[in-house]
Specification:
- With 154 residues, the protein is α+β, with helices and mostly antiparallel strands.
- It has 2 helices and 11 strands.
- 19% of the residues lie in helices and 40% in strands.
- The strands form 2 sheets. Strands 3, 4, 5, 7, 8, 10 and 11 form a 7-stranded mixed β-sheet that branches.
């Protein structure tokens, strides 16, 4: 009898250790909100296009930002002023499967910067206004984008 109790306790402890050490966090019912900083200053961003299922396996909720002119104006109004060469840092409360940071050029062209899934990025050395788009994916079908602007001064 003692032998069976000992095996049961050992099995239960191993199970609890495995479950307790698991890093898989359940996704919330709304898109994950990252923290984006520049030289330890939080950068305010606007949520862009997203499709989110979270815990619901059947139906997701998709959202689009407002009209591009209004949306881009709002991003520019919230832009952070920074010195050239600063570093953008990104933290997610729940790590995405992958993410990219894209910069929108003044002519509207987009260019991915850095490597996918990179958590820090150097700012341009060239002064000017830069719009950034952080796009992330969790479990293949949960997607979200975050938009922010940075005005680089000399």
């Amino acid at each position: 009898m003692r032998k069976h109790s000992f095996y049961f306790l050992c099995t239960a402890m191993v199970f609890l250790m495995i479950v307790g050490c698991s890093n898989n966090k359940q996704l919330p019912d709304e898109p994950v909100r990252p923290t984006i900083t520049l030289q330890e200053q939080n950068i305010e961003y606007l949520e862009g296009q997203s499709c989110w299922f979270g815990t619901n396996t059947e139906v997701g909720v998709c959202a689009d930002p407002p009209h591009p002119t209004t949306f881009n104006k709002s991003i520019k109004e919230k832009a952070v002023v920074a010195d050239s060469g600063g570093v953008i840092r990104i933290k997610f409360p729940i790590k995405p499967d992958n993410f990219t940071l894209t910069v929108v050029n003044s002519d509207g062209g987009e260019e991915s910067i850095g490597k996918p899934d990179q958590y820090s990025y150097k700012l341009s050395l060239k002064p000017g206004y830069y719009e950034y788009i952080l796009s992330a994916v969790w479990e293949e079908r949960n997607t979200a984008s975050y938009h922010f602007g940075i005005q680089i001064i000399e």
